[in-house]
Amino acid sequence: MKEGIGEDVANKDKIAGLCLFASTHNDTDAQNVSLADYIARMKAGQDKIYYITGDSYAAAKNSPHLEIFAKKGVEVLLLTDRVDEWVVGSLFEFGGKKLISVAKGDLDLGDLADEADKAEQTKIEEASKAVVEAIKADLGDKVEAVRATTRLTDSPACLVVGENDMSQHLARMLEAAGAGGQIPHSKPTLEINPEHLLVQKIAEAQDSAQRRDLSELVYEQALLAEGGKLDNPAAFVKRMNHLLLTMSQ
Q1: Whole-model pTM above 0.85?
Q2: pLDDT tens digits for 185-233?
Q3: Which of 74, 132, 202, 206 has the fewest Cβ atoms surrounding its Cβ within 10 A?
Q4: What is the 3-state secondary structure of the chain?
């Protein structure tokens, strides 16, 4: 059924209306939410259908990208079927509402963001310039950029790709299928939560080596949280153990 959205262009809206998905509205991995159901439950001022793709229901449901949406009570579709990446690559809107990935581009809450939200974003960007520059210097070309965000409430950081870039989930699927050499790779942006203790530790670090280890740890945690794989797992374990031992003394 879902394949028809990409294959039958003339009838894709009708087919999309029959498809069911899992979402944050229900505490279950059952795919029982239609796009019409989602639109009927949209918050006042909401004009977008938000979704996230992931390797599994647990990974999608617990993604750091959902934290601000959970805080505001905004439903997010949890797309974990392999075909779902092609669904959102073909279905850009439904019922006049654009489909927006919560893991791509700048946080876009539209009218759901009030003046307090906008003021808070401006405030943390100004206050976090030094730690943002420090983390970018530590991570180098591993990331396209580092920026402070209000989208996180519990996690120290998350990774996002450009609005028009391929999702990290789709890139992993293509690599697993043996198409790695044909994938146009793009570097992610690391978004940090300045209120998190780990980020504050980076801001306060006097030792450059320890600061670099903390920056790497925050980046690697964000990569793991969104289903990615570490290039050097042994180095990650060694770094974490070193920080646990030195910072607890």
Answers
A1: yes
A2: 778 999 999 999 999 999 999 999 999 999 999 999 999 988 888 889 9
A3: 206
A4: CCHHHHHCHHHHHHHHHHCCEEECCCCCCCCCECHHHHHHCCCCCCCEEEEEECCCHHHHHCCHHHHHHHHHCCCCEEECCCCHHHHHHHCCEECCEEEEECCECCCCCHHHCCHHHHHHHHHHHHHCHHHHHHHHHHHHHHCCEEEECCCCCCCCEEEEECCCCCCHHHHHHHHHCCCHHHCCCCCCEEEECCCCHHHHHHHHCCCHHHHHHHHHHHHHHHHHHCCCCCCCHHHHHHHHHHHHHHHCC
**Where do the structural domains in the chain lie, given as residue ranges?**
3-103, 113-247
CATH 3.40.50.11260 given to domain 3-103: yes
